[in-house]
Amino acid sequence: MEITVHNMAGNEVGTIELPADIFEVEVNVGLMHQAYVRQMANARLGTHKVKSRGEINRTKAKWYRQKGTGRARHGARSAPIFVGGGVAHGPKPRSYAKKMPRKMRRQALRSALSALARDGQLIIVDELTMDETKTSAMRAMLHNLVGEEKALVLVADRNEAVERSVRNLANARTLRASYLNVRDLLSHDRVIIPQDALELIQVHLGPENQ
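^ that's the sequence the OP posted. Answer follows.
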């Protein structure tokens, strides 16, 4: 697949051939959904906790005598039916982590990139560099490339100037190419990929990593 290369001003400066084994694979919606569900599940902390009746700090003395009151038999006020008592069958700390084979995770990324390339949502730029943090310059660049659409800006490595410049923009965020994931790819209208980040993607998802 041949795609146009732009500069930071939004002008066309050439074309580049995207590898078919990454950007032209069959789009597997089910696989992408599985990868998305796994990612969201793994992000859950699972720290929810309630106290059972055995953990409630209330007196363990019998509330009232066993017989003769006409009321039901009760041994303590920590029973779940009383206000201030424990919770029956409540949530406990647990892990929501899901497993997914590496090959399937990488194929899900290829499917996501192929879907974006098919729909014209990928924008390749020759370079993405800034001498200083300047949000207004980044806003102007994004306006030239994507207009008002929500954009994901990939970077090859740590780039403080670019990352800080994007941080204050409501319709954009940065992501290092080595942290590429299905959720971020599919939650933005456009994905801006500098050529150095594209090279990292090709190394990570190329034929040798099938």
